[in-house]
Design goal:
By secondary structure, the chain is of the alpha+beta class. The chain has eight helices and 16 strands. It folds into two domains: about 190 residues, 2-Layer Sandwich (Nucleotidyltransferase, domain 5); about 70 residues, Beta Barrel (OB fold (Dihydrolipoamide Acetyltransferase, E2P)), CATH 2.40.50. The N and C termini lie far apart (about 120 Å).
Length: about 325
């Protein structure tokens, strides 16, 4: 072994031998957030990758879990709101790893993702980033994620869970049992510790929550429909050819269509990739009425054009006249 190798081994062994001090926080001081890839599940009849959002309160170890179909920024923020509602309040700070939806490395410095920073400012918590190569700084949520995978997810595979709602209902029932189990390090349950923590959390008011909906621009086709995530939705015929704004909640799938900031319609989106259609009877009738009006106008225009043609002087002759004319031409 080289001198460099010996030195590196000694340093590595010293680091391994160092005791890791358990990082504890006071009640309501910190929550930790992370994602877990939960594998492929048959969701609404289609194999889909599923992810688990986890927020864990540092003091009580009480956790919130929400299964989703992606880990995008609107989904992350929507899961935060669901967690705040579940806990009945907000911790003073929330700890993340280097996920891009939370932190960006810009100009040699780590900066909060602008969407998360604006969300945190509105909700009243401070986003924190765990130290690089120091996973123990958010080890509480990582240990829980490991427990979630080996315990709940392993057992859930044998259950008849066909939708995300099924998965989330099942994990909520599992969490109820986990919260009543004693934590060996404290000889207390999560519920007992949460009783001391809950009253110290900053209040959460759902009615004042920020708008975390995802936004997309859609164009109305000549058939009076828009297309989004492989599905078609009818809109009033007066918007044919217009570009509208579709805002949708990433968890509930509730969507609203806007034209120049004014609401056009609201609906619940079909499952992504379903290749389905949602045609409203009122939109169908309005499109048909518009078609009739346009065609009546076209027919009237054609009649008017025919009447405006100049009159032709047409003589009526006996067929024998053409035979006489032909005979003179051959002489």
């Amino acid at each position: 072994m080289t001198i460099t190798g010996v030195f590196a081994k000694r340093i590595r062994d010293e680091l391994v031998r160092k005791a890791v001090i358990r990082f504890e926080t006071i009640p309501a001081q910190q929550a930790q957030v992370d994602w877990k890839e939960a594998g492929v599940w048959e969701i609404d009849g289609v194999p889909r990758k599923v992810y688990a959002f986890v927020m864990l309160l540092g003091y009580s170890r009480r956790a919130f879990v929400r299964f989703t179909l992606d880990m995008k920024s609107p989904t992350l923020l929507a899961c935060h709101l669901e967690a705040f509602k579940y806990f009945g309040g907000i911790a003073a700070e929330i700890l993340y790893d280097n996920m891009k939806t939370a932190w960006l490395y810009v100009g040699g410095l780590w900066q909060p993702n602008p969407a998360l920073l604006a969300f945190a400012s509105c909700c009243g918590f401070e986003p924190k980033r765990c130290k690089v190569r120091r996973p123990q700084t958010k080890g509480k949520v990582e240990r829980f994620i490991g427990y979630l995978g080996h315990n709940f997810l392993a057992a859930a595979r044998s259950q008849d869970l066909k939708t995300l709602a099924d998965l989330n209902d099942a994990v909520n029932a599992w969490l109820d049992k986990v919260d009543d189990e004693p934590i060996r390090a404290f000889c207390e349950t999560r519920n007992e510790r949460f009783d001391r923590e809950s009253g110290l959390l900053a209040p959460f008011f759902p009615e004042s929550a920020p708008d975390i909906r995802a936004s997309a621009e859609v164009v109305v086709s000549c058939e009076g429909t828009i297309r989004f995530e492989t599905n078609e939705y009818s809109v009033p015929a007066r918007f044919l050819g217009a570009t509208l704004t579709l805002k949708h909640h990433p968890l509930s799938r509730e969507a609203t269509l806007y034209a120049n900031g004014l609401e056009v319609l609201s609906c619940t989106l079909l499952p992504k990739g379903a290749h389905g259609k949602m045609i409203r009877e009122s939109d169908r009738k309005e499109l048909f009425a518009l078609w009739q009006k346009q065609n009546r106008g076209l027919a009237k225009q054609q009649v008017t054009s025919a009447k405006s043609l100049p009159a032709l002087d047409v003589s009526v002759r006996n067929p024998i006249w053409y035979e006489t004319l032909l005979a003179e031409a051959t002489v």
